[in-house]
Amino acid sequence: MEKITFCKSWSFLKTFTRNHSSKEWLLRQKTDPYVEKAKIKSYRCRSAFKLLQMDDRFSILKPGQCVIDIGAAPGSWSQVAASRINSNATNSEIPTGLLIGIDLQQMYPIKGVTLLGNSDFTSPKTWHKIKELLNGRPIDVVLSDMAPNASGVKHLDHDLIIKLAYSVVKFAVLNSNVGATCLIKILDGNQNAEFEKTLMKFYSNVKFVKPEASRSDSAEKYLLARGFKGLKQRNDVAKVQTESIPCNVTSMTFFDRLLDPNNGIVSCSGSGDDNNHAIHQCMEVFKDGMYISNKLKMMLFEDECEEYFLYSEDERSEFMFRLLQHFSIGGQWCQDDVVIEPYLNAMKYVYKDLLA
Fold first, then answer.
1. Kindly report the CA angle at 337 between 333 and 338, in degrees rounded to 5?
2. pLDDT tens digit string along 127-137?
3. Catalytic residue at 287?
4. Are 67 and 97 in contact (CB under 8 A)?
């Protein structure tokens, strides 16, 4: 009987808390001036004014730009951006921009915006869709108002949004024009300083911004990164000064096993070129400070991966130390490779004695 009484009490408490929170939310909505302004100006939600205020202050958006809006639903930021970059072609006298909006939720159409609803931004498939739409065009601005579903646990929500934020930066640095801008929502927490330092490696100017439309009791803030410095071309790896390395363990059989499709690391066909060996993709995991998103890296790093045991510890250690230490110049930012040839080209350069 005591257990039943407890369950009933707990159920009542949850219902009471939920109803109380709902009433608070409704009251806040009624008294929020930005909610009424959004209705008057036909914005889908009040968050439009956050972007408007930040853009008015920092001139982020300009006609003719290529812009990616991540976490776009319900579409208020895309509405603002479409107007400011003229992707809706309302002014024939200024350049017309390109705007792509992505969100897990489905979205109603917006004039001048290509929307990818029901799309997980962290998925390689979504990245591939975006790149197809870009058709080789570099990005000028990456906007992210993306946030995880709130758990109510402050440190957990912070950790989750930081992980999402890193995925945004990773995408931005791999696909942006030199001089580009990245605006990312984060929450108060102990990882913000480190995340800021990461952005400073790639952007000339980084600052925290909290627009007036952001509620004062909200933990949200934005990091505005401007002046993307660009990445070195991958063929710069060949310019790195190296020494001929004597190999005691690895041999060409190492690479034969690597390229054997039966071993599960690669498949026979690659992206756009039948001679490429495509690296099998896998779910992204975080290990030792690095995101692992394909079977090649799982084979090297993750001892719970089946492919990990295709090689002995000595082989793997030498391969890691003698090769990856030389050409992992990009660190975790080189996680976007989908074919193995860039790895093999670097191997051929470093392992001169194997291929002489």
1. 150
2. 999 999 999 99
3. no
4. yes
